[in-house]
Design a protein that fits this description.
The chain starts with 21 loop residues before the first helix and ends with a helix. The protein is 36% helix and 15% strand. It folds into three domains: 114 residues, Alpha-helical ferredoxin (Fumarate Reductase Iron-sulfur Protein, Chain B, domain 2, Orthogonal Bundle), CATH 1.10.1060; 173 residues, FAD/NAD(P)-binding domain (3-Layer(bba) Sandwich); 153 residues, FAD/NAD(P)-binding domain, CATH 3.50.50.60. The protein contains 20 helices and 16 strands. α15 links the parallel β7 and β8. By secondary structure, the protein is α/β, with parallel strands linked by helices. The strands form four sheets. A five-stranded parallel β-sheet has the order 3-2-1-4-16, sandwiched between helices. α6 packs antiparallel against α8 and α15 runs parallel beside α16. This is NAD(P)-dependent oxidoreductase.
């Protein structure tokens, strides 16, 4: 009997691809590790216990067939592993890079519970599809017979691109509208290159363009066309805009020059990485070089801002978060990476004012303590009286999260119903909004969330749109097809 290639977790320890030296990686925007070699990926995949109830798959929003493609990888059957991975995800190599695996698949790995350290699933997932691109296994989108029906997708982020791919494969004409000059949404302009190099996103976009999906970039619904205009042009519409309205704070000095929004800062940096002219870098307003930088927030966007500031050559970088390390929403791996690169975290601390007249010079802060749990179940932070102090700052970046924009007003469509949080109201049985034939998916429905959830929603809504279009298609046309 051949030796079982799996169940090696007892004799092989957990390992991740080696990171580049801090002194090297903190000077550029390339990814901080180069990924597994084939032997490393096979060794880690072979640690999988092939458990009867794969909690890794259960806790993956896409329900990827993780144990199956780990087994194929361990057996050296990489092309089959890629094909299986690609069955459930339109962007496996992107999820492998940016998913918080420590909270999802790896955090729920059975051998993690047994004390042996989780299989490094994300790194193996990245390796599989990067290898597929390198070897030419990633095939063009197989476009079905033309249906004569047209779909408009508003938003070229992960959710919109996923739906566009599935509906194009079904034979529909697909048009994607996005306000930015490049497709990808936050994958392109919100996430720094050291987590997700931009050619990884652009090759996905190119594949969709080659499939005949038509992109209308620099296009704003409400400015270049109303929602009603697009409804007249298309048989169905998907709204997948994401949530881009930065949450703000009310305190003295918040409007002082040098106090900026996280997405403005990250977008400017990513545009510069593309080689674009960035006026805000030329005048220094969104550039950290030589400055004392303070980032406010504890999520992944805050981690992106502190690590970008390091790479731009900041004099110092501090991150203020009102709770402690254990209660922060961001990835603990990102905190570790940031600390290695020289970021100082000041836990249990909140700003109460921004100092300076013409330009910010400092942040007045107060210490916090954790009280009773709030509605989210986390202990609510409370100010600690008498603990006020000041820290210097030439640039303050607010990374407090995102809320929905006022889409009914922006789109010129007051009948578009929203929830009390401003997200689009949908019938969750079919993901349709209050307007017939207009669907919505991703963060604009669920609120700010993960890329993997946007992909899941994009996959689900594609099925609902397909059912809607089939119901509209005359019976004789369906028979002919």
């Amino acid at each position: 009997m051949a030796d079982n290639p799996m169940l090696k977790f007892v004799i092989r320890g957990q390992s991740y691809p080696d990171k580049r030296a801090v002194t090297e990686r903190a000077r550029d925007f390339s990814e901080i590790s180069h990924g597994f070699a084939t032997s490393g990926a096979e060794d880690q995949a072979a640690r999988c216990s092939q458990c009867g109830v794969p909690y890794c798959s259960v806790h993956c929003p896409l329900h990827n067939h993780i144990p199956d493609w780990l087994k194929l990888t361990a057996e050296g059957r990489l092309r089959e592993a890629y094909e299986l991975s690609n069955m459930t995800s339109t962007m496996p190599e992107i999820c492998g890079r940016i998913c918080p695996q420590d909270r999802l698949c790896e955090g729920n790995c059975v051998i993690e519970f047994s004390g042996h350290g989780a299989v490094t699933i994300g790194s193996v997932e990245k390796f599989i599809t990067d290898t597929a691109w390198k070897e030419g296994w990633v095939e063009p989108v197989l476009v079905g017979e033309a249906t004569g029906l047209s779909v408009g997708v508003i938003g070229a982020g992960p959710g919109g691109l996923t739906t566009a791919e599935y509906l194009r494969a079904a034979g529909h004409e697909v048009h994607v509208y996005d306000r930015y000059d490049r497709a990808g949404g936050l994958l392109t302009y919100g996430i720094p290159g050291f987590k997700l190099e931009k050619d990884v996103v652009m090759r996905r976009v190119k594949r969709l363009e080659e499939a005949g999906i038509q992109f209308h970039l620099g296009f704003e619904v409400g400015r270049d066309a109303s929602l009603a205009d697009l409804r007249e042009k298309h048989d169905a519409i998907l709204i997948a805009t994401g949530v881009y309205k930065a949450r703000d704070m009310k305190m003295p000095g918040v409007g002082t020059q040098g106090v900026v929004k996280a997405l403005d800062f990250l977008t400017a940096s990513n545009k510069a990485s593309f080689g674009d002219d960035v006026p805000e870098h030329e005048d220094g307003s969104l550039l950290a070089t030589g400055k004392d930088v303070v980032v406010i927030g504890g999520g992944d966007t805050a981690m992106d801002c502190v690590r970008t500031s390091i790479r731009q050559g900041a004099k110092s970088v501090r991150c203020l978060y009102r709770r402690d390390r254990e209660n922060m929403p961001g990835s603990q791996r990102e905190v570790q990476n940031a600390e290695e690169e020289g970021v100082e975290f000041i836990w249990l601390t909140a700003p109460i004012a921004f100092e300076g007249t013409e330009h910010v010079t400092g942040v007045k802060i107060t210490r916090m303590r954790l009280g009773q749990p709030d509605a989210s179940g986390r202990r609510a932070p409370e100010p600690d009286p008498g603990s006020e102090a000041s820290i210097p700052a030439d640039l303050v970046i607010k990374a407090l999260g995102f809320d929905p924009e006022e889409l009914p007003t922006m789109f010129g469509e007051p009948s578009l119903a929203v929830t009390r949080w401003g997200t689009l109201r949908v019938d969750h049985r079919n993901m349709m909004t209050s307007i017939d034939g207009v669907f919505a998916a991703g963060d604009i429905v669920r609120g700010a969330s993960l890329v993997v959830w946007a992909i899941r929603d994009g996959r689900d809504v594609a099925d609902h749109i397909q059912a809607y279009l089939q119901a509209k298609t005359p019976a004789k046309q369906r028979v002919a097809a």
